[in-house]
Specification:
Layout: H1 3-82, H2 92-97, H3 99-105, E1 108-111, E2 114-123, E3 128-130, H4 149-158, E4 163-171, E5 177-186, E6 192-199, H5 200-203, H6 205-278, H7 292-339, E7 353-360, E8 368-374, E9 379-387, H8 391-410, H9 415-427, E10 436-444, E11 449-455, E12 460-463, E13 469-472, E14 491-494, E15 500-504, H10 506-509, H11 520-531, H12 536-551, E16 559-566
Antiparallel strand pairs: 1-2, 2-3, 2-6, 4-5, 5-6, 7-16, 8-9, 9-10, 10-11, 11-14, 12-13, 12-15, 15-16
Helix pairs in contact: 1-3, 1-6, 6-7, 7-8, 8-9
């Protein structure tokens, strides 16, 4: 095939490619413009919808709250009249049997076309006198003060204040917990309190949902109009591009015939050189002659072969080095895992307690660790620590710290003496200025006593069998590895049968969400309350799963925890 024929085909292909590329670019640009228009319009509609939503919410909330208050006052006034000359106000069974009193005490509150709430009556001791839910009537609201603290706070205020209002959560008629608004009003000349209660989703939200639905409909209409305009513009642009492509095709044919005279031979050499280069012959060179542009192309081609050869060699060397480093990291990780106590630890064979630990590194090798091992006097050492930094340096410092602490424990002394001895050893030759936080405890297996020392580590949670939760362990002592002659102190706490001890590193409380919000002490306390009754392995698994879900699989720091439960 002649060169001019090849050039005609090449230029024709180029023109078709350019036109096709322009079509794609125009489609993309038009799609981007359409998307921008839709986003702008959607933001405007969203702002209008949100403004209406907020306005409706404010109006509904303000007027709705006043309406609920008027219902409470009305019911309080009616009950005051009905009870004015009645004896036996402490005989609640007789009061409940009176239909007129029940009708005045328990009435439905309507919103639009639905029942949105009710009224009920309690006394100033918190006992429910009349309530539409038979499972609540006759019981004291203080029974729910732990589960629904907001509700109890409002009820307790109503004992002393003539009118109390606020938002809270409590059981509905179907015994399902729901979010509510309540106004409590004292019944004049009696010891009774009327409560007017509405469910938020039934009383305030229906109108707001209507506003949201109208906004969605407006968005759909606007999107259809923008899409129709974009399609018309797309057809116009394609017509123009096809016309320009036809002109470019004719020009390409003429140019191909003209260039064939000057570039056929140099291009053939370049073609052969490219073929050899593609086969891996990076030493190939072509003569640097012909027109100026062809000479520059030949020079660039010759430089390309040398650069590709050097780049390939460098990549091979880097791949080999990376593989060697990854192999060392994997070996270090296996060594580190072997240092943690395994299933064959004698501490796990005792029946007086449950014991479980977990360790997850943010990288392949981390600096957190925990340990437990028996001591000579039928007690057991519990240890959890967090080394500064990450990677192999932290893992090496962790191994040294663990060894020093365990050896010091075996030589005797209380936890404070052990930390002081290990600290002196860690400070020697610590040119890298690494440090470690440590919580060390000696547990009396038979008596449940726990002597402990804390070197800059987070406080420990004690989950009592009674349901109470405590934190302890902060003795004001510093981290290990900074100042050699440091004095540490020993504390003591008593574990009762059924109590659970929860030790952890800061990777638990400081676990970070993708939005940059730490897990925090409040979430940790709620998580411990939810899992405290589980066996310790399941408790640890649930806690780790919750932290992983909060971080969405991207760990911010090493996560290590150790759980001890004294069996009843």
């Amino acid at each position: 095939m002649l060169l001019r024929t090849k050039l005609v085909i090449a230029y024709s292909t180029l023109v078709v490619s350019v036109v096709g590329g322009l079509l794609l670019i125009s489609d993309f640009a038009l799609e981007d413009l359409t998307r921008r228009n839709l986003d702008g319009a959607d933001r405007a509609l969203s702002e209008i919808t949100q403004a209406n939503y907020r306005l409706a919410e404010n109006i509904l909330s303000r007027n709705g709250e006043q309406f609920v208050a008027s219902v409470a006052r009305s019911a309080a006034g009616e009950l005051s009249l009905l009870l004015a000359r009645r004896d036996g106000l402490k005989d609640y069974a007789a009061l409940r049997a009176d239909k007129r009193l029940r009708a005045a005490a328990n009435r439905d509150i309507h919103a639009l076309d639905r029942v949105a709430g009710y009224t009920d009556v309690l006394d100033r001791d918190g006992v429910s006198v009349w309530h539409p839910n038979p499972d609540v009537e006759g019981r004291n609201f203080s029974e729910w003060r732990q589960r629904y603290p907001e509700m109890w706070a409002l009820v307790a205020r109503a004992f002393n204040e003539p009118e109390v209002r606020g938002y809270y959560s409590f059981l509905d008629r179907d015994n399902r917990g729901r979010r509510k608004y309540m106004v409590l009003c004292q019944v004049p000349d009696t010891r009774f309190i009327v409560a007017a209660v509405v469910n938020i989703e039934d009383f305030f939200l229906p109108v707001q949902r209507e506003i949201e639905a109208a906004g969605q409909q407006a968005r759909a209409t606007m999107a259809a109009q923008v899409a129709a305009g974009a399609e018309a513009e797309r057809r116009r642009m394609k017509g123009g591009l096809f016309a320009a492509g036809a002109v470019a095709m004719a020009a390409a044919v003429l140019l191909a015939f003209w260039l064939a005279r000057f570039v056929s031979r140099p291009l053939a050499r370049l073609r052969d050189g490219v073929i050899r280069l593609g086969r891996g012959d990076f030493a190939v060179e072509v003569p640097e002659n012909g027109s100026g542009e062809v000479r520059e192309l030949a020079q660039a081609f010759n430089r390309l072969g040398g650069e590709l050869a050097r780049h390939t060699t460098r990549l091979a060397e880097e791949a080999a080095a990376r593989e060697a480093l990854e192999s060392e990291v994997r070996i270090a990780r296996r060594i580190q895992e072997s240092m943690l106590p395994g299933a064959d630890s004698p501490c796990l064979a005792r029946g007086e307690y449950e014991l479980h630990g977990a360790n997850l590194e943010a990288r392949e090798v981390g600096g957190d660790f925990y340990d437990f091992f028996p001591l000579a006097d039928d007690s057991m050492a519990l240890l959890i620590a967090d080394v500064s930094g990450k990677g192999i340096p932290a893992a090496l410092f962790m191994a040294v710290s663990r060894t020093l602490l365990k050896d010091a424990c075996q030589r005797g002394g209380d936890p404070a003496q052990v930390l002081a001895e290990a600290n002196r050893a860690l400070c020697q030759g610590n040119d890298a200025c690494m440090f470690v936080t440590v919580f060390l405890a000696f547990y009396d297996i038979a008596g449940g006593g726990l002597d402990y020392a804390n070197g800059g580590h987070p406080q420990v949670w004690l989950l009592r069998a009674t349901g109470e939760r405590e934190v302890f362990g902060c003795l004001g002592d510093p981290i290990l590895g900074i100042q050699a002659e440091q004095v540490f102190h020993t504390g003591h706490v008593q574990l009762q049968p059924g109590d659970t001890l929860f030790l952890y590193t800061d990777g638990v409380s400081e676990a970070m969400s993708p939005a940059g919000e730490p897990f925090g002490a409040d979430r940790l306390e709620r998580l411990l309350a939810e899992t405290a009754a589980l066996p310790t392995p399941e408790m640890a698994r649930r806690i780790v799963a919750a932290l992983d879900a909060y971080q969405q699989g991207v760990p911010f720091d090493d996560i290590t925890l150790l759980i001890l439960r004294r069996k009843p």
